[in-house]
User: What shape does this take?
Amino acid sequence: MKKYLIPSGIKQRNKPSRLSVSEVMTIVIAFHQSKYQNLKIHYIHFVWYYLTNEFPELVSYTKMLKLMQGVLVLLCSYLTHRQARPIEIAFVDSSKLQVYYNLRIFR
Assistant: This one.
């Protein structure tokens, strides 16, 4: 059937992804827990150098961006589930605060 379609002129590769959904989510969560502020630097400088044994079939950075779009809903669901619950402990600081106007001391 594909041979009868009119080509659009744009070459498209239909190569399947080699990373699973859980691997993509693991890389994204590791980025958010790291000291890196930029995903590209984290992926190129950390994942490619140090995590190649854990992820032997890594994809390029642009392919990783496409895969991240597919796991966004799952990632939001996971992070909502893992959201910290309040533990009913509060810390109160009783140190004095400097005020500019003396009328605001008791506020």
